Amino acid sequence: MRLIYKRICYALLxxxxxxxxxxxxxxPVKTTTPPLTEKRVLDVFKSPTCDCCGKWISHIEDHxxxxxxxxxxxxxxxxxxxxxxPVFQSCHTAVSKDGYVFEGHIPAAIMQxxxxxxxxxxxxLAVPGMPAGSxxxxxxxxxxxxxxxLLMKDGTASVYQHIAGNx
Length: 167
Fold this sequence. Notes:
Strand content: 15-25%
CATH superfamily: Glutaredoxin
Low-confidence stretches: 9-36
Largest sheet: 7 strands, mixed
Distance between the termini: 99 Å
Number of domains: 1
Shape: globular
């Protein structure tokens, strides 16, 4: 009886080994998990004393865009080197890893849309001046109309999007 028991155990063990050593490759498992996306981080150049720049940085961070802050000795020189004409300048300048510039109080959603489009020949976007109601320039219920300009590398600009104010 003992011999039969051993043979049955060996046979079961052999079947188990053969079943586990199937030479067919298993199909890769397909998942529906979206690929990880890298968080966008902008280099932001600003004066250390500018309060509205800090508020704008908080705005973009609240919308999933990171910021590495720089306080250059000569902010105008940074803007000049980046190709931002004085007529388009504001209080801070941000630069994406792709080299696009974002001058002034541009809403985060519009920057993200621009970055997904990658317009050919574009330098970046600008909101000249400091319009009331723009991100970082909130003033209770006041919101001025303003244009977000598309800056081109050839020095030209056009309206990328108009932001309507309130009456």
